[in-house]
Amino acid sequence: MSPPRHRALWLLVLTIGAGCSSEDGEAHVGAGLDESTRGAAGQEATGRADATPSFEWNLPEGFPQPHVPADNPMSEAKVELGRHLFYDTRLSVNETQSCGSCHEQKLAFTDGRAVAKGATDEVHIRSAMGLANVAYASTLTWANPVLPDLERQALIPLFGEDPVELGMVGREQELIDRLHAEPLYVELFPEAFPEEPDEPISIDTLTKAIAAFERTIISGRSRYDDYLAGDDILSAQELRGMEVFFSERAECFHCHSGFNFSDSIMHLGKPFDEVAFHNTGLYDEDGQGAYPAGNEGLYNFSGEQRDVGRFKAPSLRNVTLTAPYMHDGSIETLEQVIDHYAAGGRAARNPNKSEFVTGFEISESEKQDLIAFLGALTDETLLEDPRLSDPWTAR
Ligand code: HEC
Ligand code: HEC
């Protein structure tokens, strides 16, 4: 249940390789990675239960339906249970932290820190990611090519030791006992998992419920979405910024592409899952493209030199709220992010850098336009939706 995560994930990687890294500076892993190759990667080839007819997704206009694993169909009861678990501090060793401590609704489900801090104050090497639209992410965390499902991902913060996040390693039974002691759970678990009458409360059902809740954290009701739906709502400045964003000059849209502004994407109706990792030239410690040791992106899985510094392009929805930026929170503001790209990368001479990060001219006013456009991606309904909020504070 709780092997050191690098070792466990390495095992997965050894069976699949890290996919193909093309020579063009991008790593596109597993274009065409279908369910059967997933099986070969050591994931359960459980397939997907995409038709869960009774579940009302209530998706924003134009949004595709997310994939759902066959063994974890969606239900209202499961999502409600998952919400309680997501915000329950009893999921951490000293009962101080929940998932929601590092993934706060008001910050589009990130934490406002450069790098995350766990229940025992251990500092993570990476920045907590926003969870909006995580149901569409084809691979999870900043640079892991073999972690596609939310059910498995939840085990990392719960039981990981490097670093400790919730710190429940070796305390599985204690965790189960704590859940049994909460009368609400004694009610909610059997309702959510009627197929498990003997043992409805388990680590398996716990992670399934959390994953089902996470799949409902969907963000697509920003002013930009209203504009796409035909509402003449964006200001002249935002429209100018949109043009910069989608221009061949700035190239933002090449990697932050599609309805979720990310090119690591999967959903119903898409013939294959897109998985991509890019080096934006944040570091070059030795003139040969070195990134800080241990935080080298895809390289930490593949061992391939050309994968040093390759990370997933995160969604830019709600990006105004998710500062500081990048995998290690090393850029504080959107203005500085744009400066980084305009310079062709903060470490522009990085030889592994993507061919889409070559630098470009941008005036001060265009920079403000682009920032204004990114602001139009903020979805206020996400931040206030009571169905996504902490149910325990109301008690
Ligand atoms: C101590 C802070 C912390 C806690 C607690 C925490 N997370 Fe995270 N979360 C992070 C960090 C940091 C990352 C990025 C990890 C990486 O790239 O290695 C992350 C990444 C994720 C991702 C990947 C998102 C994406 O877009 O790929 C998901 C999903 C997630 N967390 C869910 C959870 C769940 C569920 C819980 C509770 C069981 C949880 N987190 C608890 C800090 C935290
Ligand atoms: C080559 C692909 C690529 C291009 C082109 C690109 N990005 Fe990115 N973007 C990424 C990747 C990969 C990351 C994460 C990098 C890291 O943390 O090391 C990122 C991170 C970001 C972040 C930080 C998000 C967060 O939550 O931390 C912002 C903001 C951003 N990009 C905006 C832009 C803008 C604006 C442009 C155009 C000027 C742009 N990007 C062009 C791939 C790209």
Descriptive account of the structure:
A hairpin with a 4-residue loop joins strand 1 and strand 2 (26-28). Helix 3 runs antiparallel to helix 8 (183-192) and helix 11 (236-245) crosses helix 15. The two termini are 32 Å apart. The chain is globular, with a radius of gyration of 21 Å. The protein has 395 residues and is mostly helical. It has helices spanning 5-16, 35-40, 76-86, 99-102, 150-153, 155-159, 172-180, 183-192, 203-214, 223-228, 236-245, 252-255, 299-302, 334-342, 364-375, 380-384, and strands spanning 20-21, 26-28, 276-278. The longest helix has 12 residues, at 5-16. It folds into two domains: 5-26 and 38-218, Cytochrome c-like domain (Cytochrome Bc1 Complex, Chain D, domain 2, Orthogonal Bundle); 223-381, Cytochrome c-like domain (Cytochrome Bc1 Complex, Chain D, domain 2, Orthogonal Bundle), CATH 1.10.760. The protein has a three-stranded antiparallel beta sheet with strand order 1-2-3, with no helix packed on it. The model is unreliable at 1-25 and 30-46 (pLDDT under 50). It has 16 helices and three strands. Residues 250-252, 254-256, 278, 280, 282, 311, 313-314, 316, 319, 322, 325-327, 334, 337-338, 341, 354, 356-357 line the site of one heme C.
